[in-house]
Automatic annotation (TrEMBL), chain A:
Keyword Phosphoprotein: no
Catalysis performed (reactions): N(6)-[(R)-lipoyl]-L-lysyl-[protein] + 3-methyl-2-oxobutanoate + H(+) = N(6)-[(R)-S(8)-2-methylpropanoyldihydrolipoyl]-L-lysyl-[protein] + CO2
Gene from which the chain derives: LOC107907527
GO cellular component terms, A-Z: branched-chain alpha-ketoacid dehydrogenase complex; mitochondrial matrix
Key words, A-Z: Mitochondrion, Oxidoreductase, Transit peptide
Organism: Gossypium hirsutum (Upland cotton)
SUPFAM superfamilies: Thiamin diphosphate-binding fold (THDP-binding), TK C-terminal domain-like
Cofactor(s) the record lists: thiamine diphosphate
Record text on subunit structure and interactions: Heterotetramer of alpha and beta chains.
GO MF assignments: branched-chain 2-oxo acid dehydrogenase activity
InterPro entries, A to Z: THDP-binding, Transketo_C/PFOR_II, Transketolase-like_Pyr-bd, Transketolase_C
Protein name per Swiss-Prot or TrEMBL: 3-methyl-2-oxobutanoate dehydrogenase (2-methylpropanoyl-transferring)
Record-listed E.C. numbers: 1.2.4.4
Automatic annotation (TrEMBL), chain B:
Subunit description: Tetramer of 2 alpha and 2 beta subunits.
Record's keyword terms, sorted: Oxidoreductase, Pyruvate, Thiamine pyrophosphate
Pfam (any one): E1_dh
Organism, scientific name: Gossypium tomentosum
SUPFAM superfamilies: Thiamin diphosphate-binding fold (THDP-binding)
UniProt-recorded name of the protein: Pyruvate dehydrogenase E1 component subunit alpha
NCBIfam families xrefs: PDH_E1_alph_y
Amino acid sequence: MGFRNIIGRRLGLGLVRRRKPFSTATCDGDGNGNAKSINLYSAINQALHIALETDNRAFVFGEDVSFGGVFRCTTGLADRFGKARVFNTPLCEQGIVGFGIGLAAMGNRAIAEIQFADYIYPAFDQIVNEAAKFRYRSGNQFNCGGLTIRAPYGAVGHGGHYHSQSPEAFFCHVPGIKVVIPRSPRQAKGLLLSCIRDPNPVVFFEPKWLYRLAVEEVPEHDYMLPLSEAEVIRQGSDITLVGWGAQLSVMEQACNEAEKDGISCELIDLKTLLPWDKETVEASVRKTGRVLISHEAPVTGGFGAEISASIVERCFLRLEAPVARVCGLDTPFPLVFEPFYMPTKNKILDAIKATVNY
Amino acid sequence: MNSASCAAKISTQPFSLNPTSPASHDRPLVSPKPASLFLGSTRKLRLSSSSKLNLHRRSGTVVAVSDVVKQKKSKSTHSLLITKEEGLELYEDMILGRAFEDMCAQMYYRGKMFGFVHLYNGQEAVSTGFIKLLKQQDSVVSTYRDHVHALSKGVPARAVMSELFGKTTGCCRGQGGSMHMFSREHNLLGGFAFIGEGIPVATGAAFTSKYKREVLKEADCDHVTLAFFGDGTCNNGQFFECLNMAALWKLRIVFVVENNLWAIGMSHLRATSDPQIYKKGPAFGMPGIHVDGMDVLKVREVAKEAIGRARRGEGPTLVECETYRFRGHSLADPDELRDPAEKAHYAARDPITALKKYLIENSLASEADLKAIDKKIDEVVEDAVEFADESPVPSQSQLLENVFADPKGFGIGPDGRYRCEDPKFTEGTAHV
């Protein structure tokens, strides 16, 4: 369980922000005004406070949210905004999301919390068949754009089968919703506010491993980060690495090690998985000629497959090596063998070398 | 609001409409169906004349079994509810559950076991009261709070402890962990981390028993399935779907609700429109019973009735056991939300203390007998820990086994060995 036991690792350092010429960001959160050093769940908490402050038709609901939630993301909301806006639901994910769709269809901002992404499957039907298709099949008379579903996802070291899953690939296959995954506290706050205010239903996966471990300077004011814009967080010239969420910190470590061997790695945070920013990734691959994708979810049918196929379509002649995917194994998320199952730094490092030396 | 409803639950006498005649709700209202239509779903639609009877049948005659028993008991003080052997068996089982869970907490804080561990302290009466009445072939489906269900069903403490430590000698070879105890030998169908997921599984298992008897003609097959779940689950769709199916097909199942009033931090009373769960049974056409889950003898009496009904083929029962967990939801739960007064109230109703008192007052056992059992169980639990400690950790190739039916798993290289055992395994993209 080695790599992630470092407490308080700062992910804010070493970020290289490359501004896109046509950026639609209202504010990049670039340190204007006060910024405090907080962790991921506090950043999300701030975002929720701001969301409820700025829109009096915003609601937060889910299992155990009123006392603050099992990860403390919703602390203080019930006290501040009242039980009519921040309330617990009974234990029924399908009901929670369906109910959220109804709220959103009537013009409210429904922020539903699913306690663990592993439990989102009963709600999958509502998300795929209702939320994603609401605007389309009503001919734009109704929409549930006000719906945002938040769920903690990903490995946590000891979660086992049902507290560690990464289901983002299932949702990336659904036209009509957006899927967003932040990598750090500053990103999380900005992205969450964008998701809440986006006029489309969004599934927002939060890397639960980073709730306490990731600490970063986060501006206290209201700011949004643009969706569907990937970010190059590390410049390089030999190989492009693409990832999201908690996996980026592992990939960054691998990049650092590869640098010692003289391999210059470019690291891209996709941020929004659906619809994803193909241009940024393609531009990077055109520069380096090699690409490696890494995610915790099992490799077969994972989102890395979509990225790989798209890149090959667009950059076939430029590629110097096959697209590499370093992902979880094709088994249920294990209990005892988590370190063996996960795409660890060493696996990524080996794949970088193999790709560069192809 | 909390304390008022607690007061209501103290006097926990389920209201009885017909105290003297435990109604069987399943006498067919139309002419007896031919033997081949065992599914019942092919029953003809009820005609209007019998629809009134139908309504009456569903109007919620709740059988107060424990009332009947209580009356019987008060009439003749000499007829006790249990014999000495039964009493000691119950005591031993509850002590085993308690000691085991306490040891789990110790081991967890020492880092020997990991993951999410949910302890059963305080609810032993439900597990012991029900499961001790089962045969080996009867099935039990549990939740994530399943250590004690496994122990009561007969899974050896060693196997459970090893499973918790993640060793190969665990009941699931270390692959399941705390929340997924399975045992084919003892017909324990798990261990479900996801609430409500076990209930349809139990329903299917109960169907098998009926199928074996009526279609495969194994005339002596009367296996019963027990499904345990909590109060939070009773707001979940799967619960209602299964109540419907079980009643529709008259399955040999007992739905046991372990109502401990809390779903992590959500009070049952604030999450449920009608907190009296037992009332949901008659809505689907089965009896619903409320029983004091802190009293193992009362639970046992109700369980006898419910399991008996199921065995005779009279259909399912919904039993709501009012119980309480002394610890937090899991070992990671600081348990700050519950009122200390509530906790103290239930601590005073500790099922083990109550049984001990009963046994001693009715001269069924002496202090020495009970102390001997305590000591024996301590040794069993210590032995389980030692065994688990010394057991081997599974080899890495076990990760790839049992994904599909082929027991070798996948990821076998051309040399016939698992690729992951090759020292150069991590090179490349780690595909297996």
